[in-house]
Design goal:
- By secondary structure, this protein is mainly beta.
- It has a single domain, classed as Beta Barrel (Maltoporin, Chain A).
- 7% of the residues lie in helices and 50% in strands.
- The chain contains 6 helices and 39 strands.
- It has a 22-stranded antiparallel barrel.
- Strand 33 and strand 34 form a beta hairpin.
- The protein is globular.
């Protein structure tokens, strides 16, 4: 541990001492007055505002108070406190892929790959995009709601396995308020960071108010790019990365804000327009190479990612007679510009396949330095509209019906450059470009949905839901080489669509579409034992649209589906001071889609695997043991396994499970990727009076078992297994009136909890034929490991006004 981390030990001992006092207080709780009830949690998961404990479905919610207590500011902070949520994290912010309940395809987030299986919503509007979950800055947030299991009735295609909702605080006419929070931190093995947050709520009139939020965050780098060299056998040349050596070379800067206006039109109608924007600039990479050293890599070209997005939304709430009418519409725009070092690919393909003979200059001489860099450009636009009508929640028979429409376009440029490449084999109009993806992807989704509930008796209720959907997805543009040695893609295929053009592409060699319709269902039976306890059974289904493979020889991939059988409970005990919720479930994941890197050039394609079955349980406990001492815990267990061997697909895209004479790509019983069998967390918080200040001490422990980084046996053998790990966070602080301060530790014992293991291409993870490489130039296959942020020590100051 670096010398700068010594304050962590001091703070940890202080917090552990306070935790000891907490346990002593708990032991004497019998002498204290009666139990102190927990606060009520109101959520809108069912598209109505309801008490969490009254909703017969699994919901994990983190409210404003808890978000602040856990010092949650970003995606990685809240993921660890949600047991049902798993993640594939390997790159800069906004690139993580999330899964729920083990419904994981292990996809690589490729632009031409499957849609996500988990839908992400910001307030009422979907912000789900291919390529990663938005890392929305968490400040002045009302709550985060996680809805595991198929949500296809109310939330649509990308909510096959669940839905993640981030709900912002809304303007209020009740009075003026504001706040300012400042945080500084130091990352062990890394550099320093800070967070500046502020908000203001301003009533304009008795019927209108505006809320403004701004933030600026700098995340410290902790990965070092160290000196290294690589050998290209074809030109018999050596390159080094001396020009790019840098310590802590992966910092991140994020800034942005939001503005929302609330206008009450009489007592029954409210209009809320809003604008939210965020700009993230990341440098370096967010994984290290164990073969190089702890938190160290060897990169030979710039790595950067500039990701900015804006969402403009309009929500209208009103009444038509007794019925609530809601319209939610919005426009979402996201732009990403990136640079990625792809030297691993060049080295691997030259050392294993002699590709250096293809990378030549204008004289036909192999380039001495044929390393590659990917210049990426992604432009997303999404428009969505939803209109729904709901009857009063207090009616014995109640319903909600609605219409939904969404259209997302994604203009994709992936420009693989080799400097000095012969113009004759560069993609036409793109100097030094060996491979080009320049295409437009459009995903369209329309639906009509409805749910209805009926109270059979005062204790027994039944709910039914259905969603009719239609999707139409397309890919259009260009992909491939101009090199005549690779005629299965690129310009040799231009004759397929003569006369067609797309932006600056040399031609059009890709024009595919797929469309289908169907329906998803939900049936729920709820029995209310009393006002504090209920049990329920749910049958629900979800789907994910089928899609297109760029590779001409591959058929379209089929829609996959999820069927969920769930038995759950919501209970409150000890006069409201103890909540215990949970669910057990059996989920059938049928013909699920997953991305594969196909030889010989590691081009992404998508296939349908056989079915998988997930048997699991999730539970949460909140207990206010005394007025000063609170415990909370959550856990999930998922046995997520393939139900048959998998050895590819047939000509129609159906998975092959009879592998006689065929290599087995993934075996029956294989655990699905990125799914620890067990994940859990425990938090204890103790408060006391300290000379007029309301002091607190808090300790959290998060833990999970091992997980696989891929589905295919060959990938697992090459990349390894992500071992289980535990990490701890501590905090101690106080507040008085409108002023607060806190000292905190994250990952207090500097664990290297692994969140991903990956290679940049299939050949990149294979050992080179060492006999052809001088001993001094031999390097291990390039396998990268993403880990949680190292030990972080910080202080946070807050002022409300």
């Amino acid at each position: 541990m670096a010398g700068r981390a010594w304050p962590a030990l001091l703070l940890a001992s202080t917090v552990l001492g306070a935790a000891g006092s907490s346990l002593a207080a708990a032991a004497s709780a019998a002498e204290a007055p009666g139990p102190t009830p927990l606060s009520e949690v109101i959520v809108t998961a069912t598209k109505r505002a309801e008490n969490l404990q009254k909703i017969p479905m699994s919901i994990q919610a983190i409210d404003t108070k808890t978000l602040n207590q856990l010092n949650i500011t970003n995606f990685n902070d809240y993921v660890k406190f949600i047991p049902s949520l798993q993640t594939n994290t390997g790159g800069p912010p906004n690139t993580s892929i999330i899964y729920m309940r083990g419904i994981s395809d292990g996809g690589n987030g490729n632009h031409s790959g499957p849609q996500p299986s988990v839908g992400t919503y910001l307030d009422e509007l979907p912000v789900t995009t291919i390529g990663g979950t938005l890392d929305i800055h968490i400040y002045d947030i009302a709550r985060i709601e996680v809805l595991p299991g198929p949500q296809g009735t109310l939330y649509g295609a990308s909510s096959e396995a669940g839905t993640l909702r981030i709900i912002t605080n809304k303007p209020s006419t009740a009075g003026f308020s504001g706040g300012l929070d400042v945080q500084g931190n130091v990352v062990d093995h890394g550099s320093e960071g800070y967070v500046l947050d502020g908000f203001v709520n301003i009533p304009i009139t008795s019927f209108a108010a505006i809320r403004l939020v701004a933030f600026d965050e700098h995340d410290a780098g902790y990965i070092d790019n160290v000196l290294g060299q690589r050998y290209f056998p074809t030109p018999n040349s050596i390159i080094n990365n001396a020009a790019f050596v840098k310590k802590d070379f992966n910092p991140v800067d994020t800034f942005g804000g939001r503005a929302a206006l609330k206008i009450d039109l009489g007592s029954n109608w409210t209009i809320t327009p809003s604008v939210i924007a965020q700009d993230t600039r990341a440098r370096g990479v967010f994984a290290f190479e164990p073969s190089v050293g702890d938190l160290q890599v060897q990169r030979f070209a710039p790595d950067s990612d500039h990701d900015r997005w804006v969402q403009a939304g309009l929500t209208i709430n009103g009444k038509i007679g007794r019925y609530d009418l809601t319209y939610a519409g919005g426009y979402f725009n996201r732009a990403v510009d990136s640079l990625s070092d792809y030297t691993d690919y060049s080295v691997a393909y030259d050392q294993t396949g002699g590709y250096g003979s293809y990378w030549v200059d204008s004289t036909g001489t192999p380039l001495a330095n044929p390393q590659q860099e990917i210049v990426g450009r992604d432009r997303f636009e999404k428009g969505s509209n939803e209109l729904r009508l709901a009857s009063p929640a207090t009616d014995r028979f109640r319903f909600l019906v609605g219409l939904f429409q969404e259209r997302q376009t994604h203009w994709i440029i992936q420009d693989y450059q080799i400097q000095g490449l012969d113009p004759a084999i560069s993609v036409t109009g793109w100097p030094n470009t060996w491979w080009l993806t320049d295409q437009n992807r459009i995903d369209r989704d329309e639906a009509a949905f409805g749910e209805a509930s009926f109270d059979i008796t005062s204790h027994l209720s039944v709910t039914g839901g259905i969603r009719y959907y239609h999707y139409n997805n397309s890919l259009y543009g260009f992909y491939g080489f101009n090199d005549p040695n690779f005629s299965s893609t690129g310009e040799p295929l231009c004759a397929l669509f003569p006369g067609n053009t797309f932006r600056n592409a040399p031609c059009v060699n890709l024009n595919k579409s797929v469309a289908a319709s169907g329906e998803t269902h939900k049936v729920n039976l709820t029995y209310k034992i009393d006002d504090d306890k209920l049990v329920y059974f749910t049958y629900s289904t979800g789907y994910r649209p089928g899609g297109l493979n760029r590779i001409a020889t591959l058929p379209p991939y089929l829609a996959d589906s999820l069927t969920n059988y769930e038995l759950g409970w919501k209970t409150t005990w000890l006069d409201g001071s103890l909540r215990w919720n949970g669910a057990v479930y059996d989920e059938e994941f049928d013909k699920f889609q997953f991305a594969v890197l196909f030889p010989p050039n590691s081009l992404t394609g998508v296939e349908n695997a056989p079915s998988a079955r997930i048997l699991g349980v999730e539970t949460s406990v909140d207990w206010r043991a005394t007025e000063q001492l609170t415990f909370s815990a959550g856990a999930s267990y998922n046995r997520a396994k393939l139900t048959a061997d998998f050895c590819g697909v047939d000509a129609s895209g159906n998975p092959l499970t009879n592998c006689s004479g065929l290599p087995i790509l993934a075996a029956q019983g294989q655990q699905l990727p990125f799914t620890p069998k067990f994940k859990g967390n425990v938090t204890a918080r103790y408060t006391w009076d300290m000379m007029g200040w309301d002091a607190h001490a808090q300790a959290s422990v998060e833990f999970q078992t091992s997980a696989f980084p891929a589905l295919k046996v060959a990938d697992i053998d090459a990349q390894g297994v992500m071992p289980g790990f535990a990490t701890a966070d501590f905090a101690i602080g106080a507040e008085r009136g409108r002023t607060s301060f806190e000292l905190f530790l994250k990952n207090a014992f500097d664990e290297r909890g692994q969140t991903n293991r990956f290679s940049e291409c299939e050949t990149c993870q294979a050992p080179s034929p060492m006999s052809t490489i001088p001993p001094a130039l031999r390097v291990a296959p390039a396998v990268y490991v993403s880990v949680i942020q190292p030990l972080t020590v910080g202080i946070r100051l807050g002022q409300k006004f």
